[in-house]
Amino acid sequence: MTREITILTPESVELKFELAGLGSRFLAVLIDSILQAGALIAISLAFVGLSHITDIGHIPDSWLFALLILLLFSTWTGYFLFFEVTRNGQTPGKKLLGIRVIRDTGHPLDFRSGLLRNVMRAVDALPTMYGIGMISMFLSPQYRRLGDYAAGTLVVKVRKHEQLQNPLASKRTPESDTSLSNVGATAYLLPDELLARLHLITREDYRAIRHFLDRQHELESSVVERLARRLAEPFAERLGAQGEFLTDPVDFLNRLAAEWERRMIR
Fold first, then answer.
1. Which of 61, 177, 192, 228 fits as disulfide partner to 250, beta carbons 3.0 to 4.6 Å?
2. pLDDT by residue (tens digit) across 182-235?
3. Residue 64 domain boundaries
4. Same domain, 82 and 104
């Protein structure tokens, strides 16, 4: 049985996600636990081999043992945090099962949420095989373990069309967007007829555009596209811009903001 959840983002956009079930989450954890165990064994074997040459390197055994414990602890506790925060909410196990972690606002997982979620993993794993976590997910209508409640996160299925829905979004970077605001004085980002009406864009309008541009990289690509179009259409109409400017509404807003900053801010 699949369950869908609708999230209303702070930007008043409704997002629909299919929740990951108990089976896929358990299999993902099992795969990740096997990978963790493999990494721990590899580190231990490496240190066993290294201990035989400590006399040559004049490294005390106590130092090696302390370093081994530190590496084993970091690998065990940091595995999920590292992958979930740096790999779009996906560990290798989650990626293989087609699921990922998001915040319950619909935004991607951030470091704070990832840290809280994985600190609670030690509790969810009790008494063995994620017993407490499985009970919590079974009782929760959103399949949330205690770590999810503490961090405000959900585990959802990856939508296959996510990467295809907005191919330009994957190529757009904060650096490429910001560069538009640093253009030289002789570079014109908008046609003359639009620049002549730039005074129709108020400071409040500019602040709304800048707020969106500064936050767009925290949002899903599909949300960025919808919000950008909703924001750009009235401005394009006010300036008399033709439809081609809305082919890429994010690009239009970047150009509009850059020209406003250059011409209207004193």
1. 228
2. 444 434 577 877 887 888 888 888 888 988 888 887 777 778 888 898 899 999
3. 4-159
4. yes
